[in-house]
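Deliverable D4.2, example record:
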Amino acid sequence: MLSKYNPVHKKIPVLVHNGKPIVESAVIMEYIEETWPRNPLLPKDPYEKAMARFWINFMDNKDKAASFLSFFIGVGEEHKKAAKEAKEMLKILEEEALGEKKYFGGDEIGMVDLAIGWMAASFVVIEEIVDVKILDAESFPRLHAWIQNFRAHPVIKNNLPDHDKLLFSYTQKRQMFLASTAT
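Output generated by the structure prediction step:
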């Protein structure tokens, strides 16, 4: 099915609308923004819109994403280095992107919140698997509050993946990766 709807990358996410596939998270969110404008995901102000796109691109950057991936799959020194880099990324997100706002989008959930929303469900699971806590309320009080606010929003709350299923899935993925690199 993925080869039909996403023949280039053969992975999710894929949104099929009117029989036409749209792929990649940021592209899907832009499509939703343009297709259903009644519930905007981006701010109206051009500067704020540009800043939202900047933070989405910042988190989508492969070098930045590699820190979080290495935090999940790394071992030994590689894992320690990745934990330090991930903390630095979280600090930038908290101080520069979130600031004092309830959501990255302000008073309402916006596109940046959705792009970074994986943290609200997955990061605690990753920390549990690798047995290292870096996104705690003491170190990152505003990000921690954002996670609580994001998870409590009715639309998000009703669609969060089950913690135990996510834990099982991520544990399997990590074990498969570690086994493939051990040979």
